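Troubleshooting entry. Yesterday's outputs looked truncated, so today I'm pasting the complete records for two proteins to confirm everything comes through intact. If either block looks cut off, that's the bug. Protein one:
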Amino acid sequence: MSDIFAKRRSRLLAMKALRDRYVPPDRAVTCPQCGQVRDQQALPLSVCPCGHHFPVGAYYRLGITLDHGSFRELYPDLGAQDPLSFPGYWEKLAEAQRRTGLREALVSALGTIDGQKCVVSVLDGRFLLGSMSSVVGEKLTKTIEYAEKNRLPLIVFSASGGARMQEGILSLMQMAKTAAALGRFDERGLLYISVLTDPTTGGVTASFASLGDIILAEPGALIGFAGPRVIQQTIGETLPEGFQRAEFQQEHGFVDAVVPRDALRDTLARLLRLHRKGGAS
């Protein structure tokens, strides 16, 4: 019994260290749902008592999802590029790298969830809104191919404003590139779980985020292609309450389940076990 408590304490300390490093430094934040000022770093899993799920960084996400000590990063040397020499873009990339400690908006890792081996990719919304660049697409494609080669389940956490406009068509091409890689992955009969977090929009929604065998979402996450304001202005009609939020998307069949952050790791572990028991490798 003491070993169980020791392991649990070790995991909690590791999660706190990740929170201190990767949760945004503005401790005092106003919750957009309840309007209360909260100390974000003191909130369990960065979830407000009212239920609002604050965005979290990629490494913190991996820290609360994977078993402690199982993390091994994949393709860490793939960093942002400026293929079109877009004015001011390199400065924005440098600032995003300085502020987040990331080389690009996507982090991929090999690890285990409740002892079950899997590959996990996470988009970090702090890095240029988690937008999909040519390097993000390349890194995700290589991650998918790694999971396919090793016959491992794949989990992708999305949080994105869409394609990265500073890379033009090179960014848009990643939609087809990642979708094709997932098509090959699917042909092998392997499991892909897509987890949609706030926000998941644009070209990411229109490609790999929507292609999961199972699609989960965190409560209140904005999920769609164009934003609700753009849609409302285009059609000239008032949209239903909660339009494009995770709960609305579940009700209309786009999302399989809305899962609170404190239950997400256990849900993923259960899905991995069911897949394995079903005879898939």
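Protein two, checking that the full record survives here as well:
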Amino acid sequence: MTNDTGPGGGTFALEIENLNIHAHTTGKTLVDGVSLALRRGEILALVGESGCGKTMTVSAVMGLLPPGVHKASGNIRILGENTAEWSSEQYRNIRNERVSIVMQNPMSAFDPVLTIFSHFSETMVSHGYDGKKSRSTAMEALREMGFGEPSVILDLYPFQMSGGMLQRVMLAIALLSHPPVIIADEATTDLDLVSQKRILILLKDYSKKNDCALLLITHDFGVAASLAQKIILMKEGKIVESGEVKDFFDNPKSDYARNLLFSHRALYTERFRRIKEVIEA
């Protein structure tokens, strides 16, 4: 894969080239030759069963691989820069500026003894925001996520909020730096349908409004079909199939994809239809 240019002559927002991740002790290959490229303004869904290597791939992009595994080979480029050339400090700073991640189970991401404003403040300090404007900045970020009374939200503790509300707060914090790349790792898995709809619409609208690349990690084909333009299917650390979303759902090429789609439609036909309808409305 070459470092091709996107619309307007810019490089890919995110490019992964032949990524291989191994376990230290066993030598087992956890991610095997994964490559993808994502331009600004595009939404790409990385799908597959639990344990197929989706989150491990994302962890490599963020420079946050867990203990016991390592990147054996491959290149990761963010806005055309090879991350292998960054020091740990550069990686941390550039990552915060250029890539934000929104994860599942928002309750575990918040310190229960700190207010929502304290969580905002911690992030804003790392981004160099003016302390005098920190509260107004946080309120504006919450308004963008659909909160009608953001000043009230800032004084709440995480346990006083629902999962859907916390996910929107997490999204507001993640987008403070207006990153050109957003990674949503199973960001709607634990939410009810109404909350899921709200988060998906917010992600889609934000990506379009800010011309940012969105990498959507999910095992839910309904979410992928509703939001993404392109899709990559993984199995046991490898890419099985990739292409345009419409082509994937209309004419899957691999037996694995066909079997997964058949199972998904059999179990979630009504849910699939409802999610698609609310996103396209």
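Both blocks look complete. Sanity check on protein two: Residues 62 and 95 are 7 Å apart (CA to CA).
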